[in-house]
UniProtKB/TrEMBL annotation, chain A:
It comes from Tropicimonas sediminicola. InterPro entries: ACP-like_sf, PP-bd_ACP. Pfam families: PP-binding. PROSITE patterns: CARRIER. This is Acyl carrier protein. Residues 1-75 form the Carrier domain.
Automatic annotation (TrEMBL), chain B:
Its cofactor is pantetheine 4'-phosphate. The keyword rRNA-binding does not apply. SUPFAM superfamilies: Acetyl-CoA synthetase-like (SSF56801), ACP-like (SSF47336), Adenine nucleotide alpha hydrolases-like (SSF52402), CoA-dependent acyltransferases (SSF52777). One of its GO terms (biological process) is amino acid activation for nonribosomal peptide biosynthetic process. This is Amino acid adenylation domain-containing protein. InterPro entries: AA_adenyl_dom (IPR010071), ACP-like_sf (IPR036736), AMP-bd_C_sf (IPR045851), AMP-binding_CS (IPR020845), AMP-dep_synth/lig_dom (IPR000873), CAT-like_dom_sf (IPR023213), Condensation_dom (IPR001242), PKS_PP-bd (IPR020806). One of its GO terms (cellular component) is cytoplasm. GO terms for molecular function: catalytic activity; phosphopantetheine binding. SMART domains: PKS_PP. Residues 1288-1362 form the Carrier domain. Pfam families: AMP-binding, Condensation, PP-binding.
Length: 77, 1392
């Protein structure tokens, strides 16, 4: 799952740059809010989850690790 | 085509580009889309290096080579293969000179077919190098600016180190336009829903949302480090956090901006435009080109909304916006939904190496559709942020701009300081605002009240002493001089005392307008009693209600009125009061109350307003001074006595020594006394309502005596005032007086000035003497200039005492004056605003403002617009109230919920009374069973198989009975039933039993397309029966042809025959005999089967390729030849057949899907689809009223219906609960279509009424106000008004244009009166039309289509344009530029 998300972000959002699991994606400005929505759409399509607006927080989307943890939590439920 | 050679590729414009293109077409010479930067190139590179770098940039980036081709219908872009602009070199003195030069250059327009940018290297005397770059927005955006300049700087750096820059590898723009990413359905659906819920454009500071010129004024406000810090602090709170600081800050600004829009417009539902960069993929990041897109962000504010609660809504909606901000998803319709744009800019050049100071230059223009654009430059905490406002210069003049940015900052600062503060609580106005000044004129009010005011009786006594013989009353009921009036009133006072009326007691006045009415008022006051008018024109019932409330000690009346109303209270006839000589001392006037006037309360119970003597006296003296054109003026007493407007016409002349001329109301019929007042022209002043004024203005005349018209009671529009001024001449003063009964008749006034009063309504002016007027917003703060807020009235001796015996109601609206604690103010419930010159304007009632789709609609505004049409006499706007009570016809039972049904005074519906007129002739259409047998036998001669006829059997009682009787005529019958999949088991059993009983062969017909046909029928007709019937007929015809059966017999009831084919028109010409009617029915049948609905498409095959089938197989309706009551049908079936009444459908029909059809019809159309056929059954005597009612009152199992609809795949279209409609009632010569088109020219779409109803006269109540109860309901559908105006294209140009319009707009039947905007045209369409016109040799540009909106006008223009150019110029010059703005406003509006 980690890898799927990483591949998507690297290929689609940060133009082939390698990102690390704990690298801040949002606060660094690397990915902006439109970009996050692309991630959201990707996660929803890939993992069959619906992400409510209230979950769209830095704590859930700030890093690759955070995103993976969030998706794990949602898919486990 | 040769010019295309060498082009690399061509692509249509992207969606954002199209909108820019259209916007530019609307403002052809404006530089509004020029985006320009002036940047300092570090290290002062030499000009040649910059030129080389820039050449490389042009080779590398297609956005610098693209141009636009407009020769085809749609504009397209292609790579011209060379730079689409020039590079210049300029020497300038210094930085300032460079800037000056740049600001001059930015105003140049581009011819986009060959030039889209300009670049220049500016060299200062000190050797610095500045780079100027200006490109049309259609190929760039802010992000692109940075991409290009960053690339340029890198190239310069490379060249300076002697390297050639990297060869071109940058991402290109054109491929994105060639293959746009598909927009997901969910995204489309999201934005369609947003568009459906579009809100009205807010009227910021009372200014219309219409676009002006593109010229914009820029106001820059530094954000300040304190604010920046507070904002950073705020977004650390969890509830204000977001995915990024950028987004968090955006949410805060959007919240503050929406709060500002709300506060300065009063609108609760608002939408603002937000800018998204449109770069969704990493591969988009390095593209130069226009990717930016605008999306609406809407929010609805609740009354107690706080910044934090609005923020939560914004954050949530903002997420939705971002989720759906797919490239190309924003449409022109969406973008027409806002006039305020927020652009939160985060990109700066600060971190670009090689570039020093960078300025994004202002071009001095902005999209004219955006009244306000707020660019927030917020680069985080370190750099100083800035608020850059772009105000549309024609909407926001300098004081408004100043106010706007100040108010926004007050709201933003309060948000930052106290997010839980109510948005309504922020005090926006300050000492410069007129409403604040109004609250500060306390000393003035005290001074005005300080000069003593003579009591009304004392004032009259003084005039009496001065000249007892001077006339005081004339007209109907005789003349009286002052001593006569004094004597008469003394006599009445004495009689009241004698009758035991004490001080402070209530005395009812049930009197016509006459000298005695005036004497009775004075007499009551002299007695110290309180008079209560009982208007003799009011219905007795209402007078009873008032009497119940008032409980008068005695009612003074006159013999002629005794018949009309007999009060429960003691009655004293004025004729029985003996005259007494003048000078008899009255018995004292100690009571401080003068009168109680009853107004209609919102609860339905009349509310008595108690007015004191001092307040009456103060008002009377002020009114006499204010409105009298001459000393001792003569006033007309012509208006309803129960209406406080009339108080003026009696007491102003009495206190001023003037005269009253009385006009008695008629014994019955409408009171049109005001017409006599103007015919006679024998007074100086007339006080009247605007409805009265509209009536008298219809007859313009030279007035010799009348010099002053005082308007009260309703809002006065400038259109009407202007018309009156024109009708009666400039010598007549038209006064607009404002005042609720609770503030004693009038508390403000304004003399109409046709030159300076140009707004919609005549201002209500300034406070009367000793009167306090406050304009307070929902938070109780004085409202800023021009912003609508609630009007409060106070002052010294200026208010009523309160409501009669209703302290609760009194305490609700008579409140302590917050600015003068010892006094009271009255809360009017009226909306007003104050202009910068201090005059007040009225904006209607707070509580009666119509709300349509959540948007406040001010009906007066529509009225004013309609009245501007020369052929509209008067106009009333109403919103059709939800059908609360449904009246039913006493004869047939049909209800007023059925379209087109009205019930007259005798309780009979329009259909029944209409049927009376042709019942006789219609009877000729029907025959007896003998005739039926004849037809069956006659047709049997053409039998080609085993059967004489095919009986369409539903299994219900009617067709079962018909089959039985048919079997008496012939045994050779084939019975057929459509098994639509929902036939009840009971019905099937019945069919089997009945056909077995009769020994008749039977077949079930069916089609796999049945559900599809049901869905189509539900979509088209909101019922299932239409589809089912057509299926039966089609399959029946097929079966008959296959079996060689010459006749089809139906069990159609007479009611169904009238409902579906026997229209009134068929019988209107006596010459039509039944054969002719049959011919017409047959013609209709042919058309019916060929109408391309799903049933035809799926079932017809080659059946109807020619008309032979209709000769081979004919129809006979059994009940045309058999008149039998339903009770007899049941009796027959019960006795003779094994037919059993079905139980499983809940009614006596046989079809289980019928319930679903009925439910859909009731939900979507609002009435029962069986109401009309059943009413016919009753009318024809087939059913009794009770039988019909019982069948219509059945309950429907919604869960079952839902499962059926799910099964066939139909979704109920629930009408929007808020979806009420506006109705425009008007008088005058104009046709409904004229009025509609006229309004479409001056009002936003959401304000155009759905219905237009022409009246010969607006019904008025006795008080001269509009009588809502007598306004007719509009006819449903409105088809005739649309078709009535169709004029076929006549000239060659008109025909050609009609074709082109039809092709582009995808519409048939375009007439010469059709208006481009009304029939759905937009700017892209105009561009396509213009292109096709040019191809057809018609010289028409897109803008011409908006200048000449009707087909006829456009054709005339095109024909004229072919003539010498001079003539064409004149046509253009004659176009009112204001009109063009309005058109542009309409363009982007959501279509309803």
């Amino acid at each position: 799952m980690h890898e799927t998300i990483r591949e998507f972000i690297e290929a689609d959002l940060v133009l082939e740059r390698e990102i690390t699991a704990d690298e801040p994606l949002l606060l660094s400005g690397m990915i902006d809010s439109l970009g996050v929505m692309r991630i959201v759409a990707f996660l929803e399509a890939s993992f069959g989850i619906k992400i409510p607006a209230s979950d769209l927080k830095i704590s859930n989307f700030g890093t690759l690790n955070a995103i993976a943890a969030y998706v794990a939590k949602r898919t486990a439920a | 085509m040769t010019e295309r050679a060498g082009h690399l590729a061509e692509a249509p414009l992207t969606s954002p580009q199209k909108m820019l293109w259209a916007g530019q077409q609307m403002a052809p010479n404006s530089p509004l889309y020029n985006m320009a930067w002036l940047v300092e190139l570090e290290g002062s590179p030499d000009t040649e290096t910059v030129r080389r770098a820039f050449d490389g940039l042009c080779r590398s980036r297609d956005a610098l080579r693209l141009v636009i081709r407009t020769s085809d219908a749609e504009p397209a872009q292609y790579d011209s293969g060379q730079p689409a602009g020039r590079f210049g070199a300029v020497d300038v003195e210094d930085d300032a000179a460079a800037r000056h030069w740049a600001e001059q250059r930015i105003g140049r327009g581009f011819d986009l077919s060959r030039e889209t940018f300009e670049a220049a290297c500016l060299r200062t005397r000190s050797g610095d190098c500045l780079f100027y770059f200006c490109q049309h927005h259609i190929f760039t955006d802010a992000w692109s600016g940075r991409v290009l300049l960053e690339d340029l700087a890198a190239r310069i750096a490379a060249l300076r180190t002697g390297r050639e820059p990297e060869p071109a590898s940058a991402a290109q723009f054109l491929p994105r336009a060639l293959e746009p990413r598909p927009i997901p359905d969910a995204v489309r659906d999201h934005w369609s829903a947003v568009k459906r819920n579009a809100v009205a454009l807010p009227r910021l500071y009372g200014q219309s949302g219409e676009p002006g010129e593109s010229a914009a004024a820029v106001v820059r406000i530094p954000l300040g480090s304190e604010r920046s810090e507070k904002l950073s602090q705020l977004v650390t709170q969890d509830r204000f956090a977001a995915l990024s600081r950028h987004q968090a800050a955006f949410n805060v600004y959007a919240t503050a901006l929406l709060a500002w829009m709300h506060r300065v417009s009063g609108q609760e539902r608002l939408s603002l435009g937000t800018v998204t960069h449109g770069r969704h993929a990493a591969t988009d990041l390095d593209v130069a080109g226009c990717m930016v897109e605008l999306f609406p962000l809407a929010a609805a504010l609740d009354p107690d909304e706080t910044f934090a609660s609005l923020h939560a809504k914004v954050a949530e909606t903002g997420m939705d916006l971002l989720r759906n901000a797919a490239p190309g998803a924003s449409t022109a319709g969406l973008q027409g939904g806002f006039n305020v744009v927020l652009n939160h800019i985060t990109a700066s050049f600060a971190d670009v190496s090689g570039i020093g100071r960078a300025d994004w230059l202002d071009n001095g223009h902005s999209d004219p559709r955006h009244a306000v654009r707020l660019n927030v430059s917020d680069y985080g905490e370190s750099a100083g942020g800035e608020l850059k406002w772009l105000f549309n210069a024609s909407t926001f003049d300098a004081p408004r701009r100043e106010a706007a940015q100040l108010h926004f900052l007050r709201l933003l600062d309060r948000f930052l300081d106290d997010p839980d503060a109510r948005i309504g609580s922020v005090d926006l106005a300050d000492g410069d605002d007129q409403s604040v000044r109004l609250t500060r004129r306390q000393a003035e009010i005290r001074a005005e009240a300080a000069s003593p005011v003579q009591d009304v009786l004392d004032a009259f006594a003084k005039h009496l002493a001065d000249d007892p013989d001077a006339p005081v009353i004339a007209g109907d009921g005789g003349d009286l001089d002052r001593k006569g009036l004094a004597a008469r009133s003394d006599a009445i006072a004495a009689a009241l005392a004698y009758a035991g009326v004490g001080q402070g007691d209530l005395v009812g006045l049930h009197l016509t307008r006459s000298p005695d009415l005036v004497a009775a008022m004075l007499g009551a006051l002299k007695r110290g009693a309180v008079f209560v008018p009982f208007d003799p024109q009011q219905p007795a019932q209402r007078l009873d209600r008032i009497a119940e409330e008032a409980r008068p000690a005695l009612v003074l009346s006159e013999a002629a009125l005794a018949e009309r109303w007999a009060p429960a209270a003691r009655r004293l006839d004025l004729a029985d009061i003996a005259p007494r000589t003048a000078g008899t001392p009255s018995e004292g006037s100690a009571c401080d109350r003068a009168y109680v006037i009853f107004t209609s309360g919102s609860t339905g119970t009349p509310k008595g307003v108690v007015v004191g003597r001092a307040a009456l006296s103060r008002y009377a003296h002020w009114a006499a001074r204010e409105f009298s054109p001459v000393p001792r003026a003569r006033w007309a007493l012509h208006s309803a006595t129960g209406f406080d407007l009339t108080i003026t016409s009696i007491f102003a002349p009495l206190v001023a020594g003037g005269q009253i001329r009385s006009y008695r109301e008629p014994a019955d019929g409408p009171d049109l006394s005001v017409l006599r007042v103007f015919e006679e022209d024998a007074v100086d002043v007339v006080k009247l309502t605007p409805a009265h004024l509209a009536l008298v203005t219809e007859t313009p005349r030279r007035l010799e005596n009348i010099r002053s018209l005082v308007l009260g009671g309703e809002e006065l529009t400038t259109a009407l005032a202007g018309r009156a001024q024109a009708a009666f001449g400039r010598d007549v003063d038209i006064w607009n007086e404002y005042g609720p009964t609770e503030a004693v008749v009038g508390c403000m006034s304004h003399r109409f000035d046709p030159v300076s009063d140009t707004g919609r309504a005549v201002p209500i002016g300034r406070p009367a003497a000793a009167t306090a007027i406050y304009l307070l917003d929902a938070g109780g703060n004085p409202a800023p200039d021009e912003v609508p807020a609630e009007l409060f009235v106070g002052g010294i001796e200026r208010l009523a005492d309160g409501y009669f015996r209703n302290s609760e109601a009194t305490d609700e609206v008579f409140l302590p004056d917050p600015f003068a604690p010892s006094r009271r103010i009255y809360r009017t419930g009226d909306l007003g605003s104050v202009a910068r010159d201090g005059t007040l304007r009225y904006h209607g009632r707070l509580d009666t403002q119509l709300k349509l789709r959540g948007v406040r609609i001010e009906p007066a505004e529509i009225v004013a617009a309609a009245m501007a049409h020369p052929d509209v006499g008067s106009c009333v706007i109403r919103m059709n109230a939800p059908r609360k009570s449904i009246a039913h016809c006493t004869r047939c039972g049909v209800g007023t919920d059925t379209p087109g049904i009205e019930i007259d005074d005798t309780g009979v519906c329009t259909t029944c009374s209409g049927f009376d007129s042709f019942r006789e002739r219609a009877s000729e259409y029907f025959g007896d069973l003998g005739a039926f047998a004849g037809i069956v036998k006659d047709r049997a001669r053409f039998r080609r198989g085993d059967y004489d006829c095919l009986m369409l059997l539903s299994g219900g009682k009617d067709s079962s009975y018909a089959l039985c009787r048919l079997a008496e005529v012939t045994p050779r019958i084939l019975a057929a039933t459509l098994d639509n999949g929902f036939i009840s088991e009971g019905a099937k059993e019945n069919i089997r039993r009945v056909t077995a009983d009769l020994g008749i062969e039977h077949r079930f017909l069916s089609t796999p397309a049945m559900n599809e046909i049901f869905v189509d029928s539900l979509k088209r007709h909101a019922n299932v029966c239409n589809g089912c019937f057509k299926t039966i007929y089609t399959l029946g015809l097929k079966l008959a042809r296959d079996e060689g059966i010459p006749l089809i017999v139906t069990g159609l009831s007479r009611g169904q025959m009238f409902e579906t084919r026997l229209t009134r028109e068929l019988f209107e010409t006596r010459a039509r005999n039944p054969d002719e009617i049959d011919d017409m029915v047959l013609a209709a049948r042919r058309a019916y089967h060929r109408y391309p609905d799903t049933a035809s498409q799926r079932l017809n095959g080659n059946l109807f390729d020619d008309d032979r089938i209709f000769d081979e197989v004919t129809f006979a309706d059994f009940y045309r030849y058999c008149d039998v009551p339903v009770s007899e049908v049941y009796r027959y079936l019960d006795e003779k057949m094994s037919w059993i009444r079905p139980v499983d459908t809940g009614r006596s029909t046989n079809c289980l899907i019928n319930d679903a059809g009925i439910h859909v019809h009731k939900t979507e159309r609002g009435f029962h689809n069986y109401a009309v056929p059943y009413s016919w059954d009753v009318r024809m005597g087939h059913k009794t009223l009770e039988e019909a009612q019982t069948e219509l009152d059945d309950e429907i199992d919604e869960a079952h219906v839902r499962s059926i609809l799910d099964e066939i795949g139909y979704e109920i279209r629930r009408p929007d609960a808020e979806d009420s409609e506006l109705i425009c009632y008007y008088t005058g010569e104009a046709g409904p279509g004229d009025v509609r088109r006229h309004l479409a020219k001056c009002l936003p779409r959401e304000m155009i009424p759905e219905h237009f109803v022409h009246l010969s006269r607006v019904p008025l109540t006795a008080n001269g106000k509009i009588d809502d109860a007598r306004l007719p309901a509009p006819a449903r559908g409105g088809g005739e008004e649309a078709n009535a105006d169709f004029v076929a294209p006549a000239t060659r140009t008109e025909r050609r244009l009609a074709e082109i319009w039809g092709e582009v707009l995808n519409r048939a039947n375009i007439g010469t009166a059709d208006n481009y905007l009304e029939i759905g045209g937009d700017s892209i369409g105009a561009i396509q039309i213009a292109a096709r016109c040019r191809a057809a040799g018609l010289a028409i540009s897109p803008i011409d289509i908006f200048r000449h909106q009707t087909l006829q006008a456009l054709a005339a223009f095109a024909d004229g344009a072919a003539a010498p150019r001079e003539a064409a110029k004149q046509v253009r010059a004659s176009v009112d530029p204001d009109n063009l703005k309005k058109l542009a406003a309409l363009l982007g509006k959501p279509k309803s």
